[in-house]
Amino acid sequence: MNLGRAIALCRKQRGYSQAQLAEKADISISYLSLLEQNKRKDPTLSVIQKISEALAIPSGILFFLAADQTELSGLPVDLQEKLSFAALQLLNEQPPEQALI
């Protein structure tokens, strides 16, 4: 599992800098940087929830994007592809606070 890669991917897709995401998630920039570099592999569920909420995506999406191929081996390939497509579509949508009213 590579949670740091998933966080960085989602952050970049949303167009946030590390500073912006850290502020939105109420965590330090240095902690976020360490998470993204996989130098801290022990984030609590509450930290993951804060990051997910700041990115406006379900935490399950982060876990799915962080999963290694071996961790997904129990899922049929077509389901893996559908889930990947749905995750990417979700990231391409504007977060609710940025959507035009």
TrEMBL record:
Q: Which species is this record about?
A: Caballeronia mineralivorans PML1(12)
Instruction: Using the record, list the residue span of the signal peptide; answer none if the entry has no such feature.
Output: none
PROSITE patterns per record: HTH_CROC1
PANTHER family recorded: HTH-TYPE TRANSCRIPTIONAL REGULATOR, METHYLPHOSPHONATE SYNTHASE
GO MF annotations in UniProt: DNA binding; DNA-binding transcription factor activity
* Keywords attached to this entry: DNA-binding
This protein's source sits in the domain of life called Bacteria
HTH cro/C1-type domain residues: 7-62
Q: Which InterPro entries match?
A: Cro/C1-type_HTH, Lambda_DNA-bd_dom_sf, TransReg_Diox_bact_type
Q: Which GO terms describe its cellular component?
A: cytosol
Protein name, UniProt field: HTH cro/C1-type domain-containing protein
Gene3D superfamilies registered for this protein in UniProt:
lambda repressor-like DNA-binding domains
